[in-house]
Structure of EamA domain-containing protein:
Amino acid sequence: MSHSSVSHSSVHRRYNWAAVVAVVVTLVFWSSAFAGIRAALLSGYSPGHVVLLRFLSASAVFVVYALVRGIQVPRGRDLLAVAALGWTGISIYHIALTFGELTVDAGTASLLIAAAPAFTALIAVIALGERLNGIGWLGVLVGFGGVALMTVGSGGGHRVTAGAWLILLSAVTAAIFFVGQKPLFARYGAIDLTAWFTWFGTLPMLWFAPGLGEAMAHASGAATWVCVYIGVFPAAVAYVAWAIALKSAPAGLVASSLYLNPLLAILIGWVWLGELPGVWSILGGVIAVAGVVMVNVAGPVRRQRFRADPGSAPSAGSGEG
């Protein structure tokens, strides 16, 4: 065996291990966010203060990243698009999710969010001119059926809670966010875009600033650190890890790992909070994920042309809480 082949093999193994570590880090951080939100809420923080403290922490991480590595500034109309997507995919998504988790357990929330690609496929048909084949359309219908079961199941199988509607709103905004950011990946890096989305998305959250200092003074240190954790790691560091994973392994293989997110979120919620979703929520979640798999396997018949950055991040709804 030549020296060059040995060197190539060692580099390949190094990249494989980098991808494995990056995927594991991403999955654990994103999956833990759902339980982290619930933990902060159960500790006495209001939803508004949780989401603001979380994204002030995430914004600070991206400021440090920008100072150390530099960052692309969106140009012209792209800046307006990035701002609008930040308000949609960060502000509305996370505010609705956090308020929703007042009454919905972490596992059910993760299952509802896991159905976001079904909404994405439908919106892409309208906005990007994509066409689904028969299996794709069946997957969308199956996904929506699973969402309906989970939505009812969140209320004990007899009623739909307001929290379930809010998390469903999060799933829809995640789909809009994903479709809207697609063309931008042809011009900007994934981490750079995520930083700008986060900064713009944090601005409306400042509405919840009154009383934050007093809330932090009265909250336990553990509760405050949970808010910081879900900001620094699931909302910031995980995106860097995701970009590393996509550059170290085939994108399709890496993306398929996101199917594990609901399972991990349920497990973490059980270990951390002692919570488990109800039977209807779990059944609906399995059906919804099956629908998402059908949509992803079928794929669109025709896509709008654009060249995606190899480090493209998934939508917020693909796994992040």
In short: The first helix runs from residue 3 to 42.
